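Example complex used in Figure S2.
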Amino acid sequence: MSEPNASATASLAEEAAKLDAADELSAKRADFILDDTVYLDGNSLGALPAAVPARLADVVAREWGRLRIRSWGESGWWTAPERIGDRVGRLVGAAPGQVVVGDSTSVNVFKALVGAIRIAQGQSAGRDVARDEILVDESTFPTDGYIAESAARMTGCALRPVPAAEMAAAVGPRTAVALVNHVDYRTGRLHDLPGITAAGHAAGALVVWDLCHSAGALPVGLDEHGVDLAVGCTYKYLNGGPGSPAYLYVAREHQPRFDSPLPGWNSHADPFGMAPAYVPADGALRGRVGTPDILSMLALEAALDVWDGVSTAAVRAKSLALTDFFLRCVGAYVPAGRVESLTPAAHGERGSQVALRCADAGEVMAELIRRGVVGDFRHPDVLRFGFTPLYTGFADTERAARVLAAVLAGAPGEVA
Amino acid sequence: MSEPNASATASLAEEAAKLDAADELSAKRADFILDDTVYLDGNSLGALPAAVPARLADVVAREWGRLRIRSWGESGWWTAPERIGDRVGRLVGAAPGQVVVGDSTSVNVFKALVGAIRIAQGQSAGRDVARDEILVDESTFPTDGYIAESAARMTGCALRPVPAAEMAAAVGPRTAVALVNHVDYRTGRLHDLPGITAAGHAAGALVVWDLCHSAGALPVGLDEHGVDLAVGCTYKYLNGGPGSPAYLYVAREHQPRFDSPLPGWNSHADPFGMAPAYVPADGALRGRVGTPDILSMLALEAALDVWDGVSTAAVRAKSLALTDFFLRCVGAYVPAGRVESLTPAAHGERGSQVALRCADAGEVMAELIRRGVVGDFRHPDVLRFGFTPLYTGFADTERAARVLAAVLAGAPGEVA
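Predicted assembly (832 residues):
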């Protein structure tokens, strides 16, 4: 195989420069710590926002080191989960008071599912048919499936995996809750949140959405589409840092009946009353559990500053332009048949990543990383490239496709 | 009321100076960021270890900012929960491979209780009498009771609160598990870990210990006393920082049957295989759930360096000397009857805090804090003073009692 021909390269590189020059989000790059690599793994771990190091140093040295215990009140530690939850909420279309940050995504899936089952069963009390079924999209990120299996076992429900494309048709009179990933972690396929949610409601079920691969990459519209509950992580497109706390959305209408399986003291109506009987707090903070992880949470809060003044519509427009452009560059540079895109061509079905099926994907990705293009590999044969509109440009995108073509052509390594 | 007389003060201050001069742990103070206040709230939030700020800055700037996704492997992020777990393990008498760090204490109580119930019921399969009872010490920190209630509800068990002093006698043929706080958060009473554990085993039950107020303050001896499972936080005597991750101990003998109610992908035998079926990992990491909170976890790891070369026996000896000395100073300075110690006089029943019942405790503590002595207040009438042997000295202790006496005497404020 040959390398991409020079005229195609020159033409696309020129187009990339024009697109970058016209990009209204390009100034946001300065808000991140970047380097010479093309970082296309922000769908796994977002890059470091420039404001985080100084803010975290202040949290450690002053709030913890000097104020110590007083910071729970004076530095706003105690209320951080709901305060930061509201900021995440804005990015996923949730009005204030419905999102709390804390715990891992897995733990939040457990809260959301058991909570949803209890609400659905409560709504169906007295019916002839039991609501004793949990549906999960069968290509789910694994942890959702494992946790759903545990939730099913502990609530006496059955778990039934269903392809996401068939989810709307599969919900039925026995369905208590359907758990769906908004964007498939492997293929980058965007699932139909409004349609599946409406179908779930029509069947009397609740729908829980996992937003890990959509929040910060595209508008979600939780309130607009009447979503019941949702969870997501904050370390991908929200750039909160490694293992930063996840979040739980409980729609306002469900909050009075949200009955958490993890009723820790932080969700008590009077947490410092230290009463032996549990009385849940009102509102989103009913989803809290134990003492929040302050260092990680306040790093996340600082990271969210990059979203000030950013509309998710603009992010979505750039995301689609980036993935379109990447697919075009790959089409121009990589010999036909050498890779196959698993990511849908239709915009309405695409998240913010491109997944390419490729023989020797593990070795190819290792070589890409050596040459300064960082994506990731998903067993057994998938190259994943995540496009983070706040800090990825079109020149980066062209270069990634060019280096990919060179690697696939077996050309000597050269970091462009 | 009068202030303490000058000769008593001079005599105890002199004794404090001698005790500090002879204290083999006194050099450890230099490992912490301290100031002019007497900080006796390390049983709520430990002081900042001096090594943490630089380490955390490096984690943020280099590991996250520069290495980004590579740090999961190259910087040892992925294995942090079990690596740091082993370091916590040494401090609570657990051989390596039995402790993982992650999640909050509340979430770990849920894992431990449900896991213990399943093991106990498995061991009793085929018996006539069901093991369907959870005992909890009735003065427990509230979150343990709330979570125990949820665990009971979700496993079909009954929850029965029992005074810790009667726990050994209360375990019976129906008991699946007893949940006991090693040290009572309010009174500072140390409960009988070896005796209650042995009584539980004699009845065929498991015992889960909450070590929040003992780990880092006294030897726990988990392996030595045959403890089944245990949980604890790391932000009190272990100084891990606000909301730093908690830990879960599962004794080696129980690990093959530990069946977590929160089987997240981090506890899978092959987490990156992304298999739809859950297969638990062997060993302690079966207690992991979702992606670990790296910033908080690595701050904790740096904080644990202060324990290098420290024996928990030495810590315990100093802890008892401090609390003894505080009680003596209070006895000498505070008029009889003005406060009442809730903390047992017997060393074998005392943790590392002194709790004084006092009228107007809320106002008294607020004034103490204004005068530079930081303890805390527990509703409705308790002053808590935590003694952290690594950074609290005898002169601090004498001063705290002296300021307390002055506050109680209504004398004009003067920070000594």
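Chain A has two domains: 6-31+309-408, 54-307. The first strand of chain A starts at residue 38 and ends at 39.
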